[in-house]
Design goal:
The structure holds 2 protein chains of 2 kinds.
Chain A (H helix, E strand, L loop, with lengths): L1 H25 L6 E7 L6 H20 L8 E7 L4 H12 L11 H14 L3 E2 L17 E2 L5 H16 L9 E7 L2 H4 L2 H11 L2 E7 L7 H10 L3 E5 L3 H13 L6 E3 L6 H4 L10 E4 L9 H11 L14 H24 L7 H9 L2 E2 L1 H6 L9 E2 L10 E7 L4 E3 L4 E2 L2 H19 L6 H5 L1
Helix pairs in contact in A: 2-11, 2-12, 3-4, 5-7, 8-9, 12-13
Chain B lengths: L12 H4 L6 H21 L2 H27 L7 H18 L5 H20 L8 H20 L12 E2 L4 E2 L2 E2 L3 H24 L1 H11 L1 H6 L4 H28 L1 E2 L6 H14 L4 H29 L5 H22 L4 H14 L5
Antiparallel strand pairs in B: 1-4, 2-3
Classes of the chains: A alpha/beta, B mainly alpha.
């Protein structure tokens, strides 16, 4: 008896599995532009992954509410990774089969794995504000688009900001800067640039890794207390950020000498710490918290007020929400640009979207027209520069809100260019890729 | 009726010592293998290959390795993830540092390095056993996590700590399409499964089982515990190391130490426990359960919701996936504590009597 019910259950699940696979195949041909949404709403980084995903999906809904991309509606599907690389790869394969034309994995680990797969599948990857820094070089990394900024841009601007506070780059000599980082490819990315800058200006760099997920930092901050760095750069994600701030408070390290990367400068990072995080500042990927921007108001009016909102309404305009929204916008604009060349009102393929992303030119007028006035500066990509812009501001937490605390910075292109070229040439050599020539780029 | 060995007489010792003594078993297994090699590539799509079949094959190889140690020799290990990592990074270093190194050789050498490390970390098993040994093998896990994150030589001085491989070639065969990768994994899998099956039937396997059942008695009848325990560690680590190299090279393509974290060690141990300790077939069942079931639930629940007309949010699906997966583990362990492989053999016994059970 027991065995019979078991066998029945097994048979049922086999049938169920068959139907799911069959239904996946059926959805493939729809007359819509399909956007895969790789998210993590569960797991150790859910607090930060959630708002990003909500912003991303809300923007896609907003585009649909405004009539689609030149009439082409957007369809989308979420896939949960819980920030795990192997689940991310599974999601990629699943959504690829449904006609995905651009991926945004929001995890440096998944980005590294997909970088190997994207060229074979001919699907571009947008990694706005994360991913491999050397993938800015589009002649080698044909399918990667680290739009708006890489970690090398972030690290460079962080040092510029410190220098400005001290009164000039020459004042950095003999200073001590500690990098408290997430011990993963994400956290290790800025190290080469910081080492380069340390050599250049003669400051001492202290590397303090924190193991995933970052709730245990006592030893790290003991080191901070012992070494007494002048500044601490925080390269954390998720719960690691708020823990670091609490530890800084407990150690008595001044929060106004702490600068976070743009993934360590959002509401979930500081909310629990409240007044204890006062004075802490973080880089911004152009935008900060923008609840008053036109695009945020559009989302409220056209998506949330219609009962279509993805997350809670008061989240609209928060830092990570805006990051997700802008990421979605970049993907949509890539498709729109591609349509200019390959036919308006048509569904684009991965290769066509890649061309669109490589030739994207969002000037201030276009951005303002879309409701991004005051939020973003122009982005223009090319074959050699898949990043498009390196504008960064710094904002700081006043105990209740993020407020901008600096003017616009730009990464030092002279320093960055050389490093990017070196690293991407090394990658090309390892992978036996011939970089595209300017003529090939035009195609 | 179908599954009855009446009339199958064994006339020689060789016939009596075959892996499958019953003809139906033999033909069934050969049929499955033939189907996997010929039928599957024609039937399934890329998603099935890359997201389900390849991870399943690689992790069942790893589970097979863990089963040799835990199921056959009775040495509990929580360091399987570490040996996967050692296999992967060793193979990587052989592959990139030696010009013209064939992929298969790099993977086997990776397995060899892993075996050597397995012997090293297996030494405590000579003194401690049971749960204490599990804790001792955790040391391997933490040591490897540390080593591959901190010692940049292992990652060929890659600044981000992430390594990647490509251009996998074997005897002029470029392994890049999903079908190629699948066939490669399947080929390796079959060779290793046959190897494992025969090992467990040979002297060394019988020694492992004697040690597992009662090590003092085994010693009294002349089995050297040091030799058999360490050989179990070596063989198991070799299997796991090759699986690790395949996980990195074939499945991920680019990986970081987090791919072989302590979670992976637990996962492999659970595969073996759920699948069936001391059973080759059980390793496959366990791997299928752990790899395929979560993905299936993740896709099946929204589809089920659609049928009923409810849309379930992504987060809710993930939570439900964990809840159902957890309760299924508990269910199977209560219904059949000896694992899924035992259910399989019960099914075979029932089938023998079917359709006249009395």
């Amino acid at each position: 008896m027991k065995f019979r019910s078991l066998a029945l259950a097994a048979a049922m699940s086999t049938i169920g599995f068959g139907t799911t696979v069959a239904s996946t195949a059926a959805q493939a041909q729809a007359k819509e532009q399909f956007f895969p949404v790789i998210v993590y709403r569960t797991g150790a980084y859910a607090a930060n992954g959630g708002p990003w995903a909500n912003g991303y999906v809300d923007y896609l809904k907003l585009v649909n509410a405004k009539g689609g991309i030149n009439g082409v509606k957007i369809s989308f599907e979420e896939c949960e990774t819980a920030y795990a690389t192997d689940r991310g790869v599974e999601c990629y394969e699943r959504l690829k089969g449904k006609g995905a034309t651009v991926f945004q994995p929001l995890s440096t680990g998944i980005t590294f794995a997909l970088t190997e797969k994207a060229p074979i599948d001919k699907i571009p990857l947008i990694t706005a504000g994360y991913g491999r820094s050397e993938s800015q070089d589009g002649s080698v990394f044909t399918w990667n688009f680290p739009l708006l900024g890489t970690y090398w841009v972030g690290a460079d601007v962080a040092i510029q900001h410190v220098a400005k506070q001290l009164g000039g780059l020459d004042k950095l000599k003999g200073k001590k800067i500690a990098l408290v980082y997430h011990d993963s490819p994400y956290g290790k990315e800025p190290i080469p640039l910081l080492q380069e800058r340390a050599k250049l200006h003669g400051f001492e760099l202290d590397l303090l890794p924190v193991a995933h997920p970052g709730v245990e930092q006592k030893a790290t901050w003991l080191q901070v207390r012992k070494n007494r760095p002048d500044y601490v750069l925080l390269w954390g994600w998720g719960v690691m950020n708020s823990t670091a701030l609490k530890e800084a408070q407990a150690t008595g390290f001044p929060r106004d000498k702490m600068i976070g990367v743009w993934w360590a400068g959002a509401e979930p990072d500081v909310k629990d710490v409240g007044a204890g995080a006062k004075g802490y500042s973080a880089l911004t990927l152009q935008h900060g918290a923008e609840p008053n921007s036109k695009v945020a108001k559009d989302v409220i009016a056209l998506v949330h007020d219609k009962g279509q909102g993805t997350g809670p309404k008061d989240e609209v305009g928060q830092v990570l929400y805006m990051r997700g929204l802008i990421s979605a916008m970049l993907g949509v604009e890539g498709v729109r640009k591609a349509q200019e060349k390959y036919g308006k009102g048509k569904v684009m393929t991965g290769e066509q979207v890649r061309w669109g992303l490589e030739n994207m030119n969002l000037d201030q007028k276009t951005l303002d027209g879309m409701g991004f006035a005051g939020v973003m500066r122009p982005v223009q990509t090319s074959c050699l520069d898949h990043m498009g812009s390196s504008w960064v501001r710094v904002h700081s937490w006043d105990g209740a809100n993020w407020k901008f605390a600096s003017d616009w910075y730009q990464a030092d292109d002279k320093l960055l260019r050389g490093m990017v070229l070196n690293a991407s040439r090394k990658y090309a050599e390892e992978k036996k890729i011939t970089p595209r020539t300017p003529e090939q780029c035009k195609q | 009726m179908l599954y009855r060995e009446n009339g199958q007489f064994k006339t020689s010792y060789a016939a009596d010592q075959q892996v499958f003594t019953i003809a139906q078993d033999k033909w069934f297994v050969l049929g499955v293998i033939a189907f996997a090699f010929i039928g599957v590539p024609m039937l399934v799509d890329e998603y099935m290959f890359r997201a389900i079949l390849i991870p399943f094959l690689i992790l069942s190889l790893a589970a097979l390795g863990v089963n040799l140690l835990v199921g056959y020799c009775g040495q509990i290990t929580l360091g399987a993830g570490a040996f996967m990592a050692i296999g992967a990074y060793a193979a990587y270093n052989f592959f990139v540092r030696i010009e013209g190194m064939p992929v298969v050789l790099a993977m086997l050498l990776g397995g060899g390095v892993s075996a050597a490390m397995g012997v090293l970390f297996g030494i405590p098993s000579l003194r401690v056993r049971g749960l204490y040994l599990a804790v001792a093998t955790l040391a391997a896990q933490f040591f490897c996590d540390w080593a591959f994150l901190r010692i940049s030589w292992f990652t060929n001085d890659s600044s981000s700590g992430s390594v990647s491989v490509s251009n996998l070639k074997m005897f002029g065969w470029t392994i890049d399409s999903p079908v190629d990768k699948y066939l490669f994994c399947l080929g390796v899998m079959v060779v290793f499964a046959v190897l494992a099956k025969n090992l467990t039937r040979a002297t060394v396997g019988r020694q492992w089982m004697a040690i597992r059942d009662m090590d003092v008695a085994a010693e009294v009848i002349g089995i050297r515990p040091m030799y058999s325990k360490l050989s179990a560690f070596a063989v198991s680590s070799f299997f796991v190391g090759v699986a690790g190299a395949m996980w990195g090279f074939i499945h991920l393509g680019s990986w970081e130490p987090a791919a072989f974290s302590v979670d992976r060690s637990f996962q492999l141990l659970f595969m073996v426990i759920i699948g069936g300790l001391g059973s080759i077939l059980g390793s496959f069942f366990g791997a299928a359960f752990i790899v395929v079931l979560p993905i299936f639930l993740n896709q099946f629940l929204p589809a089920l919701g659609d049928l009923v007309g409810i849309s379930i949010s992504t987060a809710a699906v993930s939570h439900a996936e964990l809840i159902i997966f957890g309760s299924l583990i508990v269910f199977f362990l209560i219904v059949e504590p000896h694992g899924l492989a035992r259910l399989w053999s019960i099914a075979k016994e029932k089938l023998r009597l079917w359709p006249f059970p009395h």
